[in-house]
Amino acid sequence: MLLSTLLESIKSEPALCSLDYRIIIQFIDLARLLRAQISYTQPYYITTPPAHLPINIHEFLRTSLNIPDETTKNAWAVLNTLVWEEDPAKPQYTLELLPLFLQFGLSRQISFIPLYPPTRTCLECKHTSANITSDYILAELRSHPVTIFTHECGPIPGYSCSLYCRACKTRYYHDYYVHADATKRTYYGNSSPHLQIAMHYYVERNLVEMFISMMVNAWTSATNCARVYNETFMDRHNSIPLTWEYRTQMNVGDVWNAFFIHSLMIHFSENSLLLELPHDAASQAIRLEEAISSRNAFMSGTGQDQWNHACDLCCWIHDNIDGNPVYLRSVVIDGVTIGHPCCSVHNCTTPLDSMRDRYCPDHQEFIRICVVTDCDQPTRSGTQTCIKPTHRALEDYYNQQGKAMFQLRLRLERARARTEHRALESLVPTGLDTIADINNDTEITSDMLCDGKPEAGNRKLKARFGRRWTHNDELCTASCGIILGRMTFYGSEAPNGVRHFLMRMFPTKRSLPGVIWHDNNCQIVRMLRNDPDPYLSSYFDDCALPVDVFHFKSKHKEKDLDCGHNCNPYIWPELRTDDGKWRFNSSAAEQANAWYGGFQAIAREMRAERYNFFLDEMIKRRNQLTFRKLEDKGHAPFNIPRSCLL
């Protein structure tokens, strides 16, 4: 806006000439923020400003600027063209104006951040109507109060508006639409800057991105994301009217709902799909279940964006004897001790009904069986062991440990309270954080009991009490640090499980990397050699399967001739450069493992489907950062066309 244009407009109205210039500038700024709300007083196809303001907006401008009624009318008549010249899609939310909206706008259902549907004509009717030139105008404007958690301004009370198509009975909200008889809500795409996370709560997507960045780079829990946000904007809460009935404090559920919806919308948009969720679900968690499972199935195996990654650090491109280029890719397979609660039956992957359950729905009968290994006797009422005295002794010891643990925990909490100021001095977790819950997986053996020969002779008894967790997560990491994929191992990190993981990661022989490092490759080679299935035994024939350099030197015995003949990395000259150095970093997984293991405290109580979704998203985001670092350092990262691999 040019100053000359403003002065020329004011000159034509004597009443405005007597106003302080700051009032005039504020009038224009406020009216520009209200342009979306003002435009709803006229048909959508009219692009010029209306001659008169709606009564509620007129009164808001008059009272907030403390100017006479007639002056307000004249100001709009003179300045409306200046207000309308700004791009309505990019309003400038000036924090200095927020108090005026809180004091004078909320009572008139006027929002600092207006939340309207992105369209004023029906999208469904356009898709289904034979007359494609017809416009089905939306009507029946409704609004309801909401709290908007913003990135720059903190929590802001406001109103969300919806419109209705009388032709097809579809109601359009700010970020989705739903037919009156439908069971699904359809999201518009990935363009809305605000997400509805509950009926009366929205989150700005820039804020969600900040939370995700905190999680990826600092292992920040959802609880701490909410805590940081609330403490950052603590002073803003004082300016919100006491009559506002919806909370302005963010909680952990808000963070998780925003995380899942935001990530789902990005995923569906990247794959040119529309996100559809159940409309009348009992909770947001239930509403998201199906979409989360769908995304998990997509990410399994080859789903990561960087699954087909290559760069100078993890791929050696050279010509073969025929002069054709050959791509030798290098990956490292390694396990990380991290997991989620699972069924106590070995290798059972059926999800638990409740996170406090010990068995899945398919194995509920085991609740009534003694927890001592190899014992199939029924339990006594209210206990986990049978009537055998030696088995009861194990449970008595387990219960005593629980009481002792409670006492130690209480003592530690008291000591911690006296030295709380020291907590910031160290990043090392305290003992309180590592003390196990007595309801968690705990193994008790007979040799833990008092001295004396047991009745069963020298036979060692073993019992597992409490819930069980999955064994580990297996990562496939390129030698440059990009994580190509992951898989949860439920029972153990056995060679057959690693083979299954690799075949799921690389479902065709041409997708297999030329070099697959693993600290237990000698056992895998032995298993492949003895497998009677020719397809399985020959699947990795064109791959080098060395043990990584560090483990080969320190963990594998020289007497193990089988390992030395099959898995010594020096066997393959392609793994060495002309000057005798190792071509690939066989320890690339160590840094990725340390980063990945940092999520244990956040993810250990998650349901399986949310656990997988969360960690897949964390890997995806970390890969994006790593890819940019590789570009910056000149390592020429790129993606091999999937059609060449699958």
TrEMBL record:
Signal peptide positions (record): none
Gene source species: Cerrena zonata
Coiled-coil ranges from the UniProt annotation: none
Organism placement in taxonomy: Eukaryota, Fungi, Dikarya, Basidiomycota, Agaricomycotina
Start and end residues of each CxC6 like cysteine cluster associated with KDZ domain: 332-396
Domain CxC5 like cysteine cluster associated with KDZ, chain residue ranges per copy: 111-233
Name of this protein: CxC5 like cysteine cluster associated with KDZ domain-containing protein
